[in-house]
Write a structure and sequence with these properties.
mainly alpha, 77% helix, single chain
Length: 246
Amino acid sequence: MVDYEELQYNFTPYDYAIVVAVLVITAIIGFYYVWEAQSSKNTREFLVANKTLGLTPLILSAAATSLSSGSLLGTPMEAYCNGAQLIVSCFASIIGSAIATYTTVPVLYKLNVNTTNQYIEYRFNRFLRVVPALVSVLQNSLLTASITYVTALVLTQATGLHLWVSIGLIAGLCIVYSSLGGFVAVIWTDVFQMIMIVVSYIMMVVMGTMEGGGFSQIWERNRIGQRTTFFHWTSSPISKIGRAHV
């Protein structure tokens, strides 16, 4: 864990201003759509915005949803400790997303359903709708708890706030605008957050490359550290990543 005193020493007023600005802008976007949702007349408008959103915000929102704080912090650590073999899992994600895009999504869209569980009830029965719904609630509760904790931990390290204060701030803000603002509030806050993620990643790559002495120097160091192996195929069930995981 980063030493807090050292981090606090390097954290300038400009850094604090950026952190506060991101939180405030997120809150403004979310609460704006909370206010807009007061005029919502039906559940469908609240849940799917009557299908009025364009492709770009939906894509950015989907990308932001998949890029949780856990993946943003865990993926670089995984690559540093075990090399770039993790990239093989991306192929499975690309293939799975393409299949879902051209097979499942068009069916759900034409049936005018709000959730996949609703489709399951239409296709089979209510019992088979309730069971996966309960499993999904359990899974997402555990996932959300871990993501909130990791995000709060970063905020605590960066700002000095108490961990529980950070957890309450992040969880409270997200719960309010998600539950009251509906689908549109979630989409547009995701869009803003995805833009911030991309900008931050670009800045980190540029600064890291400059500090590391250039791309060739960084690549050579990783090659010496055996972190440049992208395709080490193995069917061993005890291997972290291999053919069985793709």
